[in-house]
Amino acid sequence: MPNKNTDILRIGQFRLFKEIYEQASLQGAASSLNITQSSASKQLKLMREQFGDDLFVRTSADMKPTEKATKMIGNVQNILNEIDGLSENDAFEPAFLTTHFTVSVADELQCFLIPKLMERLAEEAPNVRLSLCLHDKDYDAKQLEDGHIKLVLAVNCTAPEHLTQSRIYSDDFVCLMRKDHHLNHQKLELQNYVDADHLSVVSLMELSFYIEKSLTSHGFKRRIKLIIPTFIQAENILLYSDHILTCPRRMAKQLASHGGLAIVELPMQVQSFSYFQFWHQRYNKDPARMWLKGMVDDILGAY
């Protein structure tokens, strides 16, 4: 039996619903779909009448989905996936994309990804807008499912099993310190490593499990004296203090490339780890998302 709530809705209204949900903005949704805000407002009004619900409510900052809209978004995305699948043999043209991508990226990956990704977007999809954020402990699973976030780029420590994942590259840990640090003039012994003043970064706290596990197996525990929010401050802190930083080798090479820091191998074996891209299986056939994933693979896999 036809559903009276959906039988007269147009495809464009489903796309508008999805864009408002993901962008939390009527103006932003209208811009992404290349329609006027007045037209978007009229379509939203029709959807509200059709479903007997406000669907999206204005706040001081943005538009929040109602409980009904939150329950609808999964079905709306499935409908759009099916519709898009009818023309999946058509060539995908990034140049015509006018969408907004939000990507959750581990802090230590951003300096490698952002410049080259922006360059690629400017060349291949100049009308695409990009927002970046740091991932939560739950790997932004809800936002991946409802489409607010397109991809999460992070190490798989505790990622939910229902997320689809694809490995980008593997890395290992090294120690970073200033070149004239007293520990850089001799082989780094485990006791000296443990006794040193350690610097850490918020994004490394989950990864540090591997380090602590190795130290515990040797009967040691290190002392983290300072935790900073991002890697931006790390180089200056290391240059002007006796702190040492245990971090991924790729990030260490980037920080040491300016000439003032030394990379020192750890005095114990620590398990290596891999970075992955995560997305919800609902979007496995979304051509825009898979195109974005491919660019990330190209950029981060090339280092």
Note down, in words, how this protein is organized.
- This protein is of the alpha/beta class and about 300 residues long.
- It folds into three domains: about 10-85, Winged helix-like DNA-binding domain superfamily/Winged helix DNA-binding domain (Arc Repressor Mutant, subunit A, Orthogonal Bundle); about 100-170 and about 275-300, 3-Layer(aba) Sandwich (D-Maltodextrin-Binding Protein, domain 2), CATH 3.40.190.10; about 175-270, Periplasmic binding protein-like II (D-Maltodextrin-Binding Protein, domain 2), CATH 3.40.190.10.
- Helix content is about 40%, strand content about 20%.
- Strands 4-3-5-12-6 form a five-stranded mixed beta sheet. It has a five-stranded mixed beta sheet with strand order 9-8-10-7-11.
- Helix 5 links the parallel strand 3 and strand 4.
- The radius of gyration is 24 Å and the shape is elongated.
- It starts with 10 loop residues before the first helix and ends with a helix.
- The model is unreliable at about 1-10 (pLDDT under 50).
Keywords:
single chain; 303 residues; alpha/beta; Arc Repressor Mutant, subunit A; D-Maltodextrin-Binding Protein, domain 2; 3 domains; five-stranded mixed beta sheet; 11 helices; 12 strands; 21% strand; elongated; DNA binding; DNA-binding transcription factor activity; LysR_subst-bd
Layout of helices and strands, plus pairs?
Layout: H1 11-23, H2 26-33, H3 37-51, E1 56-58, E2 63-65, H4 67-85, E3 100-105, H5 107-124, E4 129-133, H6 141-146, E5 151-155, E6 163-171, E7 173-178, H7 190-195, E8 197-201, H8 208-217, E9 223-228, H9 234-239, E10 244-248, H10 249-256, E11 261-264, E12 273-280, H11 287-301
Helix pairs in contact: 1-2, 1-4, 2-3, 5-11
Domain HTH lysR-type: 9-66
Protein name: HTH lysR-type domain-containing protein
Keywords: DNA-binding, Transcription, Transcription regulation
